[in-house]
User: Fold Propionyl-CoA carboxylase beta chain from Pelagicoccus mobilis.
Amino acid sequence: MSVDTVNLERIGKLRETKASMRLGGGEKRLDSQRKKGKLTVWERIEYFFDAGTFEEVGGFIDHRSTNFGLEKSRVAGDGVVTGFGRVNGMLVYIAAQDFTVMGGSLGEMHGRKIANIMDVAIANGAPMVMLNDSGGARIQEGIGALCGYGEIFFRNTKASGVIPQISVIMGPCAGGAVYSPGITDFVAMVQDSSYMFITGPEVIKTVTGENVTKDTLGGGDIHMEKSGVATYVGEDDETTLDWVKVLLSYLPANNDNAPARVPSKVPQLDVAELDSFVPSNPNKGYDIGGVIDRLVDSGSFFELQENFAKNISIGFARMDGISVGVVANNPKNLAGCLDVDASDKAARFVRFCDAFNIPLLTLVDVPGFLPGTDQEYSGIIRHGAKLLYAYSEATVPKLTVIMRKSYGGAYICMCSKHLGADMVVAWPGSEIAVMGPKGAVNIIFRKDIMEAEDQAERAKELESEYTDKFANPQLAASMGYVDNVIEPNQTRSTVINYLKSNLGKRQITPRRKHGNIPL
Ligand code: HXC
Assistant:
């Protein structure tokens, strides 16, 4: 075939154009991005996707604003790269902001590109990942920028429970921009180079006189420990993107699929150690991580929101290669009590697992809801109700292990039989009662104790009587609220057997538009 030089020239020109498009805001700005310890937008994309799998969509799109001389700063792509590729073989859609182009600010077309790729992700039932690195609404574009955000929030909501949505904050994320991550299922942040807040330090100083830095206002640690906004904080861009890749491996592509099953790896830690791991003294704490690691497939526990509401642990794990969502009281902190933050943390996770066909494994050792005015004023009634609601509405397989204490409303709340658990097993030392012995005796035997010669001795006697009656799972098992009492060392095999027997579970719920979860 003869060579068509005109065509070859056109191809050459296209290559040149595309190479220059890759430079975004130019070499100087790319260097400045790298000097901040950040990857550039294309480096991030190349690092994230399996080699050679990324396809860009809308790379030529540009803004059309002429306000304040904006026509002079037109860069193809308009400051965001959108497209799709494979992550460990899984189809994933992405929108990645380019801070080198007008600070990654979001104008009308930048917003439209993100909205478009979200529509395609929803239509194709594949996860959507957003890499945020932006100065927020493009000030020169006014309403066009606000419209862009509105269109994104609308789609975040539409996609919720349909495809997994993951936000990665890799630079600034300020003002209304924070509400897209706020809606998505998971938020990863990068230590030191990312921050999120509604109003920045300058505005705060003007309005309230408070002096605060970007980091102490909305850095990774703050959102990991205090606000609960961040699911994870990585030390740099690479670590954070690695975390997202692992997260994706536990998830299905959409709400019509189940997560991929992987070859099972038995725990390296001895499951038989569970017979002694949880102290028989109900007042002694321990770290629930030690129980989880002995139950789930080796090294598979992928904890989320690790430093927030540490009295409850949540995360994905695998049992015989099957993805499960683990919710577990952690007696190492606040004796494993449920409080406002723990209820929120667990409830949102339970709802995610339910929406995406991930069975729930609940490990119970809970003395109750945390008492006090602080909790009552913060609305523990509303927040605790979320967890009850989330478990009650969940139709995925629900497997519960009662390990030690399980008192009162918290017993019901932690995926009891009454909320539709498919399996409840208890260890021999578990105590299922309305409340702990001390509190109970003081209420029901107050008169008896007051009239006794030695009040302390009588209280002790009654406490031990109460403990004898309730410090075992027999009563609950005899009523059918516990399916079996098992030795701790049998827990892994029992859970796996129940899990496999429940994978085909079907549950029809009455038609409704949606429920009204307490918020
Ligand atoms: C237009 C912007 C911009 C914005 C940054 N730039 N933010 N352009 N609109 N929102 C431009 C800068 O003019 C600059 O252009 C380039 O991006 C890099 O910004 P620098 O300030 O030089 O970078 P840096 O020092 O790293 O500071 C980053 C920053 C700062 C902290 C994000 O740029 C900043 O405070 N930006 C404004 C943040 C903000 O208030 N956004 C609006 C939030 S309200 P040149 O050409 O000089 O390099 C909001 C409402 C959304 O978003 C509502 C949705 C519901």
About this structure: DSSP finds 21 helices and 17 strands in the chain. The chain has a mean pLDDT of 95. Residues 102-103, 105, 135-139, 146, 149, 172, 174-177 surround hexanoyl-coenzyme A (CB under 6 Å). The radius of gyration is 27 Å.
